[in-house]
Design brief:
alpha/beta; 14 helices
Length: 569
């Protein structure tokens, strides 16, 4: 075996020596570079965006970007991107009421002070956004300020007071998912010893998840004939009811018919007695021991013992509602506390503000203010100052910003959908005129422009013309452009990205063309990167709306923006 290895090794060495003496020839092979790579290489040759703005030609124009405060404070890639390409930044959320005002009404301004310092270090201007809005508010705190006062049970009666029951213990909880015939959702109990031709008294306490009605009967289970106590109309507060009937035949079942109520009903302290008797025919009607003996059926309805604290706890106390004037006074003070606090740490560095954000209604009257009146459900951060301070809420906000800020601060009213082709732009201009008629100067109007590449260009031009005619400073305040039809990044094509780039270019070029130079405050890119498609992405989730990809690669829109800015030199 050893000899065999030697022979093989020697042959191999000889072969290698032979090969090493052969003349080396370079194979001639080549391929053309793909057009997509050439295009990307061309985009990557462009300079930072801020370098394309001629400050001699446009000395007051601000080129801005919206950021998450942590992205800037952490000094990562977004921090470097912002400092390299932009001269002004706005916080998307962290200067809003809900971010600053704590549960007890105090203001936590420490993080804001940190970002101001970081901006100073990089010669980055900070735009204030926003002092008065219907969203992004600490609504729990604000609602607590104007909540009714509850006087305990036994207090001296107060004019205008409303008696309300307290909650305690357990109840019978019944749910019905949809409205059907009354008998198609039933809950029943079979009392012992019911008699014919006998008067019975029913006492019951009830409330619902909303106002509604239920029916109450005594029934014979063999042939389903019965006698009715009638129906009770309840509200969201417990109320005690007493009803009577006289049986016309032998009855064996007590029935609750609740098919015509879609929602949840709570029943407590139910009592059924024969007239003149103290014998309880429905024992344990306070449901403290559970709901043994109670059955039901129909329409996927349910019945169970409620959670503790959902039962009827007695008369409770007296609720004293605050008057509209009292609410207005309280909330005006709350607004002043917020604005004065914000100005106390920003005054030396923030020289322009969105004082009022999104005041105008979307539908049906775009000349009217937004309102929460009539809304059934509110987001946890939703609070409409205008519903309490009235139409002059923006007047008060601007007056407070002037009082606690700098005399020459540039104060904006900002809204979205002004390019939508309806009357919203005209409605906002009319409201600005109203505010000024009340003595509060509005320096500028912001148009957000969260649009798609398919937006109507004529509507955009018309919006710019209307805004220019106001003589106010005009800011494109939150520009981002999607592909339309909620198209996500995974489904985007090169042609779509080019259409997006063309729209970015159009919006910027028309701004410079139509808005007079003296009125050009600036343009802010709201989402510099494409929006990620994940649960915590709350803004245009998964849409490729930016001028960079999620991984910070420049898109065709970057080139279009650079060329649009450079064209203004």
């Amino acid at each position: 075996m050893k000899r065999l290895h030697t022979k093989i090794g020697g042959g191999l060495i000889a072969g290698l020596l032979f090969c090493s003496c052969a003349k080396h020839e370079i194979l001639q092979y080549g391929t053309e570079k793909p057009e997509s790579i050439i295009a990307q290489e061309n985009i990557d040759t462009y300079s930072p965006l801020i370098s394309y703005i001629d400050k001699n030609a446009h000395p007051t124009f601000k080129w801005g970007v919206a950021l998450n405060m942590d992205d800037y404070l952490n000094k990562g890639v977004m921090y470097r991107l912002a400092n390299r390409n932009f001269e002004e930044m706005v916080m998307g959320y962290e200067m809003k009421h809900a971010s600053i005002v704590q549960a007890d009404g105090t203001l936590n301004l420490s993080k804001l002070e940190r970002v101001i310092k970081a901006a100073q270090e990089n010669n980055m201007a900070l735009f204030g956004h926003t002092l008065t809005w219907h969203s992004g508010q600490n609504a729990v705190y604000l609602n607590s300020l104007i909540a009714p006062v509850l006087l305990p049970s036994g207090s001296v009666p107060v004019p205008g007071g409303i008696n309300v029951p307290s909650l305690s213990g357990y109840a019978l909880k019944m749910t019905n998912p949809s409205v059907v015939n009354a008998w198609e959702a039933q809950t029943a109990y079979d009392p012992k010893g019911l008699e014919d031709a006998t008067e019975y008294t029913l006492k019951i306490t009830a409330r619902g998840s909303k106002a509604g009605n239920i029916g109450l009967d005594l029934q014979e289970t063999v042939n389903y004939t019965g006698d009715s106590f009638g129906s009770i109309a309840f509200t969201t507060d417990y109320k005690e009811y007493e009803l009577k009937l006289k049986t016309t035949a032998l009855r064996t079942r007590f029935i609750i018919n609740f098919g015509q109520f879609a929602g949840t009903v709570f029943i407590d302290n139910i009592s059924l007695k024969k007239a003149g008797s103290n014998v309880e025919l429905i024992p344990d009607g306070d449901f403290e021991k559970g709901i043994s003996g109670w059955v039901g059926w129909g329409n996927s309805s349910t019945r169970s013992q409620s959670a503790e604290g959902e039962g009827y706890g007695g008369p409770g106390g007296t609720v004293i509602e605050k008057t509209p004037d009292e609410k207005k006074s309280i909330l005006t003070q709350a607004l002043e506390t917020f604005i004065s606090g914000m100005m106390s740490v920003t005054k030396d560095d923030v020289k322009a503000w969105d004082v009022v954000n999104e005041p105008m209604s979307d539908w049906p009257d775009q000349y009217a203010l937004k309102t929460g009146i009539g809304k059934a459900e509110f987001a946890e951060d939703e609070f409409y100052w205008q519903d309490y301070l009235g139409k002059d809420y923006a007047v008060k906000a601007i007056q407070l910003a002037r009082k606690y800020g700098n005399p020459n601060d540039i104060l904006f009213i900002n809204d979205y959908g002004l390019e939508g082709g309806g009357n919203k732009c005209k409605g906002l201009i009319a409201y600005v005129n109203y505010v000024e008629s009340k003595g509060a100067k509005v320096d500028g109007i912001g148009t957000q422009m969260h649009i798609n590449s398919t937006a109507n260009k004529d509507d955009i031009v018309n919006m710019y013309k209307l805004l220019a005619a106001t003589g106010k400073m005009i800011k494109v305040s939150e520009l981002d452009i999607g592909l339309g039809d909620n198209i996500k990044t995974a489904n985007a094509t090169a042609a779509m990205y080019q259409q997006q780039a063309d729209m970015y270019k159009f919006v910027i070029e028309k701004y410079f063309e139509i808005i007079p130079k003296a009125q050009q405050y600036g343009i802010t890119i709201w989402s510099p990167l494409d929006s990620p498609d994940r649960e915590n992405s709350f803004w245009r989730r998964g849409e490729p709306i930016g001028i960079w990809t999620e991984s910070f690669v420049r898109k065709p829109a970057y080139q279009a923006v650079a060329e649009a800015l450079q064209k203004q030199k």
